[in-house]
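sorry for the late reply, my laptop died twice this morning and i had to redo everyting from scratch. anyway the thing you sent over, i finally got around to it. pasting the sequence first so we're on the same page, its 234 residues, then the predicted structure underneath. double check i copied it right bc i was rushing
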Amino acid sequence: MTSGDFADRVAGVAALAEPIRRDLYLFVAGQADAVGRDEAAAGVGVPRHKAKFHLDKLVEEGLLATEFRRLTGRRGPGAGRPAKLYRRTGGEVSVSLPDRRYDLAGQLMAQAIEESVRDGAPVLEAVHRVAAERGIALGDETREKVGPRPTRERVIAAVCETLAARGYEPRRHDDDTVTLANCPFHALASEHTELVCGMNLALIDAAVSRLGAKGPVAHLSPASGRCCVVLTAR
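ok and here's the structure:
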């Protein structure tokens, strides 16, 4: 997670710490259709001007979206100006410390199950294949960062940058070993170790394999308090 991503997530969650703002968000989220300021104000029992201020703050933080519509249904001259209405956005805002990526694990596993049902392949084999496909995309992203004539130093740095953006918290050591201080799938790995660690290895191994001889090698080396995958120099 980058510092910018972290700041955006924290700001969105922090916006709901204010009681009136939180009540307005919950009220709007609980309605079947977008609501106006008057309805929202009445719904939480605050003055209209106060509701307006907090609703617009929720829009700034990306938690609510706006639209304009005439509530009376009238058209043409004399129908009045369209009202500003608020509704919950489709995006998600969450903060997890350390960074967790259970959404990614769910996507990979769901895709693997679909492929297993369709092709008849064993589920574990499908999980590894799907994870490797995602890893190839990460590897290609990393190759773009290092350019056409990368140095070994730049390759390792780019790998760490890519993995850091996915929550792995890479730690580079003097012997160019890279350990991953955080497992983005920690709770799942604790309960389903073989499945999740195998998926993790397939993902990271496919990513670093796209970097050629200057890239590191991924292998399993489980230890307490960190990800099961370790990267070593070729």
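The two ends are 27 Å apart (CA to CA).
thats about all i looked at so far, will dig more tmrw
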